[in-house]
Write a structure and sequence with these properties.
Shape: globular
CATH topology: Indigoidine synthase fold
Bound molecules: pseudouridine-5'-monophosphate, manganese (II) ion
Radius of gyration: 18 Å
Protein name: Pseudouridine-5'-phosphate glycosidase
Number of strands: 11
Strand content: 5-15%
CATH superfamily: Indigoidine synthase domain
Cofactor: Mn(2+)
Family: Belongs to the pseudouridine-5'-phosphate glycosidase family.
CATH architecture: 3-Layer(aba) Sandwich
Helix content: 40-55%
GO biological process, one term: nucleobase catabolic process
Mean pLDDT: 96
Subunit structure: Homotrimer.
Length: 302
């Protein structure tokens, strides 16, 4: 039960050392609205294929961890009436035992990807240290999994709703290299740059792959974060972004939102209050990350 069930396509790609890119399902079920999520799922798999790699979207269906989903299974994951549970790594055992349907976060997707033999994974934004974590202790398990799982995660930094400085400090403590793709600044999801720098920069997929390959030879090494800024045409206006962020944080306080609901509630607020601007941004960045992840996977397999 703990060995993921891998589709034939993904299994033969891995057996032949062809490039494979893992994709998460929480962004579909909990991060994007119905309808739009299915279109994004399709585009993500499409750009991975166009770059010469095989996509492997990961979820738990009927209690079975699945690596690679059919179009019908993607329909299922994207349909809100199926009420998928948001599964972090700690939730996987319970979901297997109780035969639940669930979507995997960065933490659980990375863990399952690694178990299946996949080393490259694309997402939108990594979870991290939340603002006010000193009181709430809300620190995403994504950080812990990156610190212990040898997977490359390609993302657009972390959402501005998080405490970016604390997140970067924790990644340093846990020896996770943060590599900017074509940038010296850590990207802030909807914005191309934050106030924080990155320790390393690469300007090509080949260099990114070389860093990952070399990092894997370092004793005790695990995950790598490749931080890819949102495409410039889709970057959110700074003032709009500030306003949505302030409103979103206020909403969380008012409704006393906690735990795993925090990220979905904030994303939902951004999507409705921006009239879709944040949705276009979210789609553009995750598609760009999938495409970059595929390019790096191709280099790593070469
Ligand atoms: N970034 C997005 N959309 C998302 C998420 C991140 O753009 O839906 C999800 C990812 O699955 C990530 C999770 O792993 O949110 C983090 O949740 P938490 O903060 O509860 O650990
Ligand atoms: Mn959390």
């Amino acid at each position: 039960m703990s060995t993921p069930s891998v589709t034939d396509e993904v299994r033969s790609a891995l057996a032949e050392n062809r490039p494979v890119v893992a994709l998460e399902s929480t962004i579909l079920s909990h991060g994007l609205p119905p309808g739009r999520n299915r279109e994004v799922a399709e585009r993500l798999e499409g750009v991975v294929r166009a770059a010469g790699a095989v996509p492997a979207t990961i979820a738990v269906l009927g209690g079975v961890p699945r690596v690679g989903l059919t179009p019908t299974e993607l329909d299922f994951v994207c349909d809100p009436t199926n009420d998928l549970v948001k599964l972090s790594r700690r939730d996987l055992g319970a979901a297997y035992a109780l035969k639940r349907d669930g979507a995997t976060t960065v933490a659980s997707t990375a863990a399952l990807a690694h178990a299946a033999g996949i080393g490259v994974f694309a997402t939108g934004g990594l979870g991290g240290v939340h603002r006010g974590a000193r009181e709430t202790w809300d620190v995403s398990a994504d950080l812990d999994v990156l610190a212990t799982t040898p997977v490359l995660v390609v993302c657009s930094g972390v959402k501005s709703i998080l405490d970016m400085g604390a997140t970067l400090e924790l990644l340093e403590t846990r020896s996770v290299p943060v590599v900017g793709f074509g940038t010296d600044r850590f990207p802030a999801f909807y914005r191309r740059e934050s106030d924080f720098g990155v320790p390393w920069r690469v300007d090509s997929a080949a260099d990114a792959a070389a860093v990952v390959a070399a990092h894997r030879t370092v004793p005790g090494s695990a995950g790598v974060l490749l931080a890819n800024p949102i495409p410039a045409d889709f970057e959110m206006d700074a003032e709009l972004h500030e306003r949505l962020l302030a409103e979103g944080l206020e909403l969380l306080r008012e409704r006393n939102v906690q735990g795993k609901e925090v990220t979905p509630v904030l994303l939902e607020h951004f999507h409705t209050a921006s009239g879709g601007v944040s949705l276009d941004a979210n789609e553009a960045l995750v598609v760009s990350n999938a495409s970059l992840a595929a390019a790096v996977a191709v280099e790593l397999a070469a």
